[in-house]
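As a warm-up, study this chain.
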Amino acid sequence: MARSRIIALLLLLVSCMSVPEKQSVQTLQNLVYAERDDRVLLADVFLPAGPGPFPAVLLLHSGSWRRGSKARMKQVGEEFARQGIVAVAANYRLSPEARFPAQIYDCRDALRWIRANAHTFHIKADAIGVLGYSAGGHLALLLGLSGNEHRKEFANVKAIATAGAPADLLELIGNPMVSDLLGGSKEAKREVYKMASPVSYVTSDDPPVLLMHGTYDWIVPHHQSLQIAAELQAKGVPVEYYELPMGHVRTTTGFNSTEVGIAIDFFKRKL
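Now compare it with the structure written out below.
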C-alpha cells in the first residue's frame, strides 16, 4: 500500500511538472511568388508562433540546377521557424529547359515577393538572409553578392549562408551539369561562366557570409569555398568558414542537423 501511494505521488508530481513544448509552426504552401515564361513559381512559407516581427531567410534547394524543389527544404524551414525565423522555400526554373540567368531572376523575384509581403508574414524588412546548399548555395551567393550591382533593390540581403556551394564555375572543368546550366562549354561561353560565378562579384560592401563545406567533397571541391572566403576576407567582408568531415551529399535535403544548427546560429547573430 505504501509503495502504491509513493508511485501515485510520483505520477502526480510528474503530471504537474511544466514540460516545455516545441514552438509551433504554421506552414503556408504553394503560394505564387511570380510568373515567368508561362511558368507559375511557387513558395512555401514557415511562420514562427507569436506576433513578430521576425527575421526571414530565403531557402534555395539543391539538385545540380536540374532537379529538386522547395519540398527538399521542408524540414529546414520548419526548424528555422521553431527558432523564431520566418523561412521561405522557393522553387526556381531548372536547366536545361531554362538556361542561366533564369534561375537568378527567379531568386530575385522571390526576394522582391518576400519584401513586398513583409507585413503579411510579420517579417522585419531590414533583416532578410538567404540560405542554399550546392546549386542552391551557388544561387544564394550570387543573389547576395551580385546585389551590389543592384544596391537599391537588393540591399535587404543582410546575410548569406551556404554549404557545398560552387563559387567559381570556370574551375568546374568538364561538368555536364554546369554546361547544361550555361548552355555550352567553358571555351565557348567563358564570359557567361564568369558572369555566373559568385566570386566575380565580391566587393567590400557585401553582407556577412557563412560557408560550410565537406573535406571529402569530390563534386564541388572544398577549395571553392576556400577561394571565395579568401576573396571576401581580402575585401574586409565578415566571413565564417566551417570545414566538415564529409562529402557532398549529406541527406535528401542537402543539409544535416549540424549544418542547420550552425546556420541558425549565424542568422540569429547577423539578422
